[in-house]
Amino acid sequence: MRIDTPSTILDRVDERLKELEAHVAQMDMIQQLMLRLLSIMHPLSNVLAQYGATATQEAALLQYLDELAGRLHSLERRQQPSLEEFQARLDEILPALRHDLEFLRLVIDTLRVERTAYRELHDYMIEQNWVGRIASRS
Length: 138
Known about the structure:
By secondary structure, the protein is mainly α. It has helices spanning 6-40, 43-50, 55-71, 83-93, 101-111, 116-127, 130-137. Helices cover 74% and strands 0% of the residues.
């Protein structure tokens, strides 16, 4: 029967921890690559097309999202995006989808795999619990 010394155990733990850290780093790299590849496919455009949005509506939504992404880092609290404003603007741009909470959630989810500025917007929406607040309305 072999009894490990405390230093042997610590060495094995350190080795295993290094392996796990390397594996996590590799998975992170793969995830970032997948996000870049997905963004090339314009997933938001595909979602909008599935829901019957016109090219004009898509352009208006993209312009609005660009504006929102630009306002993310505003120091003025009233300039920061709000869920209520977002929903009202989407209802204005896409009136046929007014009050479609599933569509609203899908747009927010899709921002995660869109271009970098929209990923930051998605992160902000998640931090502000927009999806949870939408779910509580249904």
